[in-house]
Amino acid sequence: MDLNFTTEDQAFREEVRSFLRDHLPSEVRHKVLNGLPLERDDYLAWQHALHARGWGGPSWPAEFGGTGWTAVEQYIFDEACAEAGAPRLVPFGLKMVATVIMAFGNKTQQERFLPPILAGTEWWCQGYSEPGAGSDLASVKTRAVRDGDHYVVNGQKTWTTLGQYADWIFCLVRTDADAKPQRGISFLLIDMKSPGITVRPIITMDGSHEVNEVWLEDVRVPVENLIGEENRGWTYAKFLLGHERTNIAGIGTAKRELARLKRIAASETRHGLPLLEDPLFSAEVARVEIELMALEITNLRVLSAEAENKAPGPEASILKIKGSEIQQRLLELMTEAIGPHALPFDRDAMTAGYQGDYPLDAYARTPTWQYLNLRKLTIYGGSNEIQRNIISQMILGL
Amino acid sequence: MDLNFTTEDQAFREEVRSFLRDHLPSEVRHKVLNGLPLERDDYLAWQHALHARGWGGPSWPAEFGGTGWTAVEQYIFDEACAEAGAPRLVPFGLKMVATVIMAFGNKTQQERFLPPILAGTEWWCQGYSEPGAGSDLASVKTRAVRDGDHYVVNGQKTWTTLGQYADWIFCLVRTDADAKPQRGISFLLIDMKSPGITVRPIITMDGSHEVNEVWLEDVRVPVENLIGEENRGWTYAKFLLGHERTNIAGIGTAKRELARLKRIAASETRHGLPLLEDPLFSAEVARVEIELMALEITNLRVLSAEAENKAPGPEASILKIKGSEIQQRLLELMTEAIGPHALPFDRDAMTAGYQGDYPLDAYARTPTWQYLNLRKLTIYGGSNEIQRNIISQMILGL
Amino acid sequence: MDFSFTEEQNMLVDTAERFVSKEYGFETRNRIIASETGMSETVWQGLADLGLLALLVPEEDGGLNAGPVETMLVMSALGKGLLVEPYLASAVMSTRAIATLASPDQRGEWLERMLGGELIVAFAHDELGTRHEPLAIETRATRIGAGYLLDGRKSVIRHASQAGMLLVSALVEDGVALFALDRDTPGVRLAGYPSVDGARAADVFLEQVYLPESRRLGQGDASDALLAVLDTGLAALCGEALGVLQRSLDTTIEYARTRKQFGVPIGKFQALQHRMADMLIHVEQARSMTYLAAVRALDGDAARRATALSAAKVVVGEACRFVGQQAVQIHGGMGVTDELDISHCFKRLFAIEKTFGSTLDHLDHYRRTLAA
Amino acid sequence: MDFSFTEEQNMLVDTAERFVSKEYGFETRNRIIASETGMSETVWQGLADLGLLALLVPEEDGGLNAGPVETMLVMSALGKGLLVEPYLASAVMSTRAIATLASPDQRGEWLERMLGGELIVAFAHDELGTRHEPLAIETRATRIGAGYLLDGRKSVIRHASQAGMLLVSALVEDGVALFALDRDTPGVRLAGYPSVDGARAADVFLEQVYLPESRRLGQGDASDALLAVLDTGLAALCGEALGVLQRSLDTTIEYARTRKQFGVPIGKFQALQHRMADMLIHVEQARSMTYLAAVRALDGDAARRATALSAAKVVVGEACRFVGQQAVQIHGGMGVTDELDISHCFKRLFAIEKTFGSTLDHLDHYRRTLAA
């Protein structure tokens, strides 16, 4: 048993770190390290830099222009990026639709859609969730009716993350209304510029515009944009859900945020003592640091099992549950550390170039909005309740 | 709004305290204050003392020889007794079967059975639970078949607390096998000396013999020992379940144990500091003390609402849940306070007159067995899961 | 022992609740928090007209001379409406401070205008380090001629920009004093911002601010009075929390009863049922401690009072966190949107937990008293 | 990075697990803990025959010279059987101490008899105050002629009454030393008792106990070696915990699958399902930290090693408490009886949580390193 990475893996990590030092745009790094909101161009700048290095598709096989990295290498890459302050890779194109296109798309679709994703020239969003469906993804109501060489799509999607930037959307649509819920679903790629598509922002409690409603009204989609076979879309969607385990726990992000928490706690005081030496506060920091340490090893164990092609157990759900809880706790502790300064809430002061007279230390400006924003972590991507259902079904088999 | 007791109530409390100083047998007090196991004679000595004072039935109306106290007076009495180190009143006679006999028994039954309960000359135990039934009390399998002037009873009861001391047992028995589960149940009083009754001890993990299995094999019970009507026993049992709310939270007991915890924590040290000044440990003591403070007021609110005859809500379940959790936590913290001394476990050293060479401070001898013993608190009397079901059904109405 | 309320108290609750439900709907509130000033003059005048601004004003000054129980009840009703107007700062804390410390002249000058709704007073006490120690004041008032020069910084002062006057605590030669400062006094600078819960706040910078003697409230060290005012505020805040907690719980229960997933109301799922049961337990325990806070708020023994209030803040603070987080979680995606009121409840609960010392601050305070 | 085990390691696990499941059933164990000596000579000899007592013995002394990973694996297997024999004390800690510190003569005298099962050695280090500070030793060894006089008291020493020899830590002029003491040496008095988990322990009173120089292990200050032995023990204890945790979880899952209430298996109730999911998470996190503890157990940097081991003990300790309590709770009334093995698992988990410092002790240790 060996908890350390191999010499090759360590060299690889150094390579990634060195690349990050040289090529991660400094404004972007500044934003991420200080919890400032990111914009479209921040994500794109990073994707372009990666693409230029040939690392545009860290999770892609080489045959499609990806890096062909092992799961361990992908993990090392993700962790190094997150710790250094790189933005997360927007997953909807790179990790979601691309995976489905690679596995189930035809040659034409692969040639048409994959390169722009790699290059960061086409932005994708996800059309799965519908109003009122919550975690019940199979209850798709959006209908696609065949009309000659087209499908005519009508319905509504919601929680469409960063849909306001998207050039394309991949949708689950119902193509057979009479089949059982999970049967009559198809997987369609839809141009966001198609007539009949309306995007409406959903503002979240932190004041962000991250998610959207997407309305589809008689949207005509060429049949060549159907992935795989009609009515088999649920299979592709499920394939995707089970596919991504590498970075689900967000270890790198959590380590970065833990370091930030400790910086804040070293600056703030109680009874004249830095919070990091205050017994009760430091005990809370210790708890989360130790939890994270354990989760990192659990994550490595999952990676190791993946490398050996062991059948996946409930690990992905463990990583999701603990990872989200740890990240939420880190932000909660940051808001605790800044005390009453968690109350001032001026979105303008949370921009990189802000020059106003907001009277807070820079580190105190962003924890609150992030704390609010991260409530979503335990809700989306299969809520933590759903994850616990999955675990208990696996272990109980009832 | 006034959180204080009235002058009359305070005077009453003084009267109770004064009685406790003079008449609570000192060996019994010593045992209770130090967490030593109690025996049959300890309970009886206390009941006899109370009876001599006319306080044998603190929850009974005056017409049956009880004190006729209000719910508030009963609460004050219970709390003063618990804090002073009196044993709990064994509830099976005094609070359970007596309540049913008073409400649904006939004159003959009342005259036969109530006085010995008051005087502490007949010991009762409860025959509700059956093997495998758990919280599902209505799934009674023990059968009673009418044969002339008798019922012939066959079956098995379990978790019969202190049944080894009992002269009588009150049982739920099935008298109509064809009716719906809750319909065909009757409420029978059975002499423990009847031929066909076998009591077998169940030893719990702390090494105690508190509960028993009671086997009934062709036990003949005179029909005059039937309470109320045949097949209506479930109604009486349910009446009883909803009846007792006064002392469910165990506030007095918890206060006594909190004081004990603080005494222990003042004696034990970490890094040279008394544990009561150790930041992390004292924070845990503070948490439980504050929880208890809140629960005491919640309990008083329930009493107050009872006095005004307001319809009962989910309060009884709140009192049960929090009360049991607080008591368990108090013992857990005592075992934490004594550290490695929580490991030695010699039942002999837990007797009042022990003279052996057990090398532990007296206060360190009993927390562990009590901690083990009190695991039952969240399981019996309607497990805390059942209590949460009750609350959610009340508030959700689903 | 009596947990019932008097007829007058019930009427007061009724008045405040009716006002909130009629005049302070979700849409109205959204308009108010998005407005320039961040508060509604109409609402404020409405509160004045109902006599609610006179609640803590002594009878001789034309007020109702009510106590902490009435304050708790009104705050709880206003909490249910997530009211962002400066009730706690002006009508509770500043009013209490003036009623306790001010001279008859000063009371005459201010209280009538305050209870009439003309004058809003912010309570400018907190500083950068105050959260843990209420008397850790660094703002100084130096005597100069017949007055004082004030220098210092007050931080996260709610409603400062909406107030005509600020009550400022400062160190003086003989201890601590409170000063009444018009907002437009030369040397006063406000850096304002919205608060996370929709109210407005500001940091207040005081540079060589001259105030005549007539602007000092009372003589001698005002530490005890100041602590009493802060505790009045804390008890009132617990009352407000209770209102927000109850609304959050009620809203969540209603959502769970009606929202369906996998074909059944989500309230049918036992894991959520038990969580809602735990939310209820938190709310009821918080209610008990809010009552205790109200009853102890006037305790003359400052140490005993502080201990009881710390205990209350711990229980209320834990409830704010648990109920707020679980209410959002049970609402799922809808819970994190700005569109439903539950996220606004969540933010107010979050802010309350951080106000006048966090749960951890008060737990720490309480645990230090154990060995004493 | 590699979490797989070698073929040898897997065989070791297999050997130990097979032995436990064949020779250490619930009834057998009950007979053993109720017996006069509280342990089984047969079992001990069985462990010797399988070579398991030679695990940590150096090759030159006839042993397997295995490391912390093997120790963890064996301890985990023995933990699954709730073994009460002195494996940790004798075959792990004492063996390690002797292998590290003892002279060739001493090793020759003791190790062979230990690995053969003839000699059981208890590790008599803990004192009344040791739980929080491993080097807070008060037992003294005063030099007298060619030997030492030992005075002091060792507290809650597991297996002391079953051991032929005790390794006793004591203060000497130049630091800390370990002494090997035959149990029947004049001046040694044992006050024995059962431990809550079924094993036996004793307090050991040393009064003017004379030992010749040949009974001292090594020269100079043995503090570092002692800390290393204690950490070896802690890492091994985590391994044992893992075995008990896994058994508790498996037993609970099986119970929930089969036990019916209200007509359905209780494992159908979502509240219990989620609790079992949380139990699994605790077990898996504990497993990760147990691996970490094994890997770091030989770290030469004592401070870094102690920090990692404290972190492990926190996670393992939390798991012991949560899994133990919930396993009993889910078993309901049956869970609190002596009849089912789950209550025995519960008691061993309780004891482990309190051994070598509790969760709170280690959390406190860890948090003190944060600011450094």
TrEMBL record, chains A, B:
It holds the Pfam family Acyl-CoA_dh_M. Residues 231-395 form the Acyl-CoA dehydrogenase/oxidase C-terminal domain. The keyword Membrane does not apply. Residues 125-217 form the Acyl-CoA oxidase/dehydrogenase middle domain. GO terms for molecular function: flavin adenine dinucleotide binding; oxidoreductase activity, acting on the CH-CH group of donors. It comes from the Bacteria. InterPro entries: Acyl-CoA_Oxase/DH_mid-dom, Acyl-CoA_Oxase/DH_mid-dom_sf, AcylCo_DH-like_C, AcylCo_DH/oxidase_C, AcylCoA_DH/ox_N, AcylCoA_DH/ox_N_sf, AcylCoA_DH/oxidase_NM_dom_sf, Mycobact_Acyl-CoA_DH. The keyword Methyltransferase does not apply. Its cofactor is FAD. Signal peptide: none annotated. This is Pimeloyl-CoA dehydrogenase large subunit. It comes from Azoarcus taiwanensis.
Automatic annotation (TrEMBL), chains C, D:
One of its GO terms (molecular function) is acyl-CoA dehydrogenase activity. Residues 6-118 form the Acyl-CoA dehydrogenase/oxidase N-terminal domain. InterPro entries: Acyl-CoA_Oxase/DH_mid-dom_sf, AcylCo_DH-like_C, AcylCo_DH/oxidase_C, AcylCoA_DH/ox_N, AcylCoA_DH/ox_N_sf, AcylCoA_DH/oxidase_NM_dom_sf. It comes from the Bacteria. It holds the Pfam family Acyl-CoA_dh_1. Keywords: FAD, Flavoprotein, Oxidoreductase. Its cofactor is FAD. Residues 230-348 form the Acyl-CoA dehydrogenase/oxidase C-terminal domain. Signal peptide: none annotated. PANTHER family: ACYL-COA DEHYDROGENASE (PTHR43884), ACYL-COA DEHYDROGENASE FADE28 (PTHR43884:SF20). Belongs to the acyl-CoA dehydrogenase family. This is Acyl-CoA dehydrogenase. The lineage of its organism: Bacteria, Pseudomonadati, Pseudomonadota, Betaproteobacteria, Rhodocyclales.
